[in-house]
Design brief:
Layout lengths: L22 H9 L9 H13 L7 E3 L15 E5 L8 E6 L11 E4 L2 E4 L8 H18 L8 E6 L7 H4 L11 E5 L6 E6 L1 E10 L15 H14 L4 E5 L2 E12 L9 E10 L2 H21 L9 E10 L2 E2 L5 H12 L5 E5 L4 H7 L4 E4 L3 E2 L7 E3 H15 L3
Parallel strand pairs: 3-6, 3-7, 7-16, 8-15
Antiparallel strand pairs: 1-2, 2-6, 4-5, 5-18, 8-14, 8-16, 9-12, 9-13, 10-11, 11-12, 17-18
The structure holds zinc ion.
C-alpha cells in the first residue's frame, strides 16, 4: 500500500471539551428512542445531534430521499455524514441500519453482568440494530474529537432495513463520495465477516375458483382450496418445497401464508397464498419460482366443474434482494480480516441465508462486508446485547475507519 501522506488539517478544529458518550452510554441512549421501520426520524435526529455536538460540520450531514421510493410512507431518508480525510487513501464507508422491529418499540434495557436484557416484558431491547448504530456513531465521534489520522470516510445510517432492505436498495449512491471499501454492522459475533448472502424472491399467488352450494351442487363449483392443496402436495412430493437440492444446486422455498374460504357449505372460490424462494444461485432461484408457478398451473387443470370450467391462477412477485459473494481478496474483506487479527481474534468468513443491506450495496457496486456487534436472539422479547462483543466491535470499527 502507498505510504499515507498527511494532508492539511480538516476544515474545522475539533472541539475538545464537549462530552462524547462512551459506547455503552451511547447504545443505551439509542435503545430508549423508538424507531420502527419508517419511523426513524427521531433516531436520525439523535445521531445527527450527537455528530454536531462532537464537532461535525453540519453541512457534511445530509439526508437522501430513499423513503420517497419505498413501499411505506417513511418519515426520513438515509442519514449520511461525510468526514474529509486527513490522509490520502481510498474512501471507506461505515454503515448500519437505524430501524428496529416493532417488538422493540418500548425498549427498556437493564444490565445483568456483561449483558443488556429487556426490563420490559414482551419487548426486545433493539440491539438489532441500535448496537450497529452506536458502533459507527462512536467511531465518528472519536475521530471528530481526536487528531487520529484517517482516510476520507462516509457514515451511512439506513432506514427500513427490517421490512425489505429498502433504505440500502434506494440509497442515493451519488451522495456517498464513491467509497471503495464498505463495512456494515448488524449481527452477533464481532469476528464474523459475512462476505456473501443469498438472494430472495417473494411471490403472491391468487387462485380464483368457482363458488357453488357445497350440499346441493358441489360438482358445479371449482374449489380454489383443492387447487392449492394439489399444487402444494405436488411441490412437496417433487422436492421443490422446503430445502431444495437438485443436481448439486441448492435453494429453499416456502409457502408461508394461505388464506381462503368463508363457510363449510360453499365451494371456496378464492385462495390467496404468499411464498418465497431463496438461493445463492440466481438462475436456480428463478427455476424454483418457475416450478412453483408450474405446479399451481398444473393443479388448476386438475380441478374441473361438471360443465368443464376450471379455476385461474395469478402470480405476482418481486426480487427482495440479489445474492452476492465477495472474493477473498476483495479489499474490504482483507481489511476487516486484518483488523480482527490485530485485535487478537481469528476472523471467521461466512455466508448467510438471510438478506442484508450489504446485498443491495454490493449488487449496486459497493462491495460491503457485514460484521457483528453483540446482538443475540434478534426480533424477540428475549433479545440481548453481549457487552464485551459490542465493545470489541467498536474497537474494530475505529481501526477500520483509521485504515490501520
Ligand atoms: Zn438487523
Amino acid at each position: 500500500m502507498a505510504s499515507a501522506k498527511k494532508k492539511s488539517q480538516s476544515p474545522h478544529t475539533p472541539p475538545q471539551n464537549n462530552h462524547v458518550p462512551a459506547p455503552l452510554e451511547l447504545v443505551l441512549q439509542l435503545m430508549a428512542i423508538p424507531g420502527a421501520s419508517g419511523d426513524e426520524q427521531q433516531i436520525a435526529n439523535f445521531v445527527r445531534q450527537t455528530l454536531v455536538d462532537a464537532g461535525a460540520d453540519p453541512k457534511q450531514i445530509r439526508y437522501d430521499q430513499a423513503h420517497l421510493h419505498t413501499p411505506i410512507d417513511g418519515n426520513t431518508g438515509n442519514l449520511i455524514f461525510k468526514l474529509p480525510g486527513t490522509v490520502r487513501a481510498p474512501r471507506r464507508l461505515l454503515m448500519s441500519h437505524l430501524d428496529t422491529v416493532p417488538i422493540c418499540v418500548g425498549s427498556l434495557p437493564v444490565r445483568r453482568g456483561n449483558r443488556l436484557l429487556s426490563g420490559n416484558p414482551g419487548h426486545g431491547i433493539g440491539a438489532d440494530n441500535r448496537a450497529g448504530v452506536a458502533v459507527i456513531l462512536h467511531t465518528a465521534t472519536q475521530l471528530l474529537q481526536s487528531n487520529l489520522p484517517h482516510p476520507p470516510l462516509t457514515f451511512l445510517w439506513t432506514v427500513q432495513e427490517e421490512i425489505g432492505l429498502h433504505g440500502a436498495r434506494n440509497a442515493n449512491l451519488s451522495m456517498l463520495g464513491n467509497p471503495k471499501l464498505a463495512f456494515n454492522w448488524d449481527g452477533g459475533a464481532a469476528d464474523k465477516v459475512t462476505v456473501g448472502a443469498t438472494g430472495g424472491y417473494r411471490m403472491q399467488i391468487e387462485i380464483q375458483g368457482l363458488a357453488s352450494h357445497a350440499g346441493n351442487a358441489p360438482e358445479q363449483g371449482v374449489s380454489a382450496i383443492a387447487i392449492a392443496a394439489i399444487a402444494i402436495a405436488d411441490l412437496q412430493q417433487t422436492g421443490w418445497h422446503g430445502d431444495i437440492r437438485k443436481n448439486g444446486r441448492r435453494g429453499t422455498s416456502n409457502i408461508g401464508v394461505i388464506q381462503g374460504g368463508n363457510a363449510t357449505n360453499v365451494v371456496a372460490d378464492h385462495v390467496f397464498l404468499r411464498a418465497e424462494a431463496r438461493s445463492h444461485d440466481a438462475s436456480f432461484r428463478k427455476q424454483i419460482v418457475k416450478q412453483i408457478e408450474a405446479a399451481f398451473k398444473r393443479a388448476a387443470k386438475k380441478v374441473t366443474s361438471s360443465k368443464g370450467k376450471q379455476g385461474k391462477v395469478k402470480f405476482r412477485g418481486q426480487l427482495d434482494y440479489e445474492a452476492f459473494r465477495l472474493a477473498p481478496d476483495e479489499p474490504a474483506v482483507v481489511a476487516a480480516s486484518n483488523v480482527i487479527r490485530q485485535l487478537g481474534h481469528e476472523p471467521v468468513l461466512s455466508v448467510t441465508n438471510g438478506g442484508l443491506d450489504a446485498n443491495w450495496m454490493s449488487s449496486r457496486g459497493i462491495p460491503t462486508v457485514t460484521l457483528g456487534c453483540g446482538q443475540l436472539h434478534q426480533h424477540m422479547a428475549q433479545e440481548e446485547l453481549h457487552i464485551p462483543t459490542f465493545l470489541l466491535a467498536c474497537d474494530i470499527a475505529l481501526q477500520l475507519a483509521r485504515a490501520n
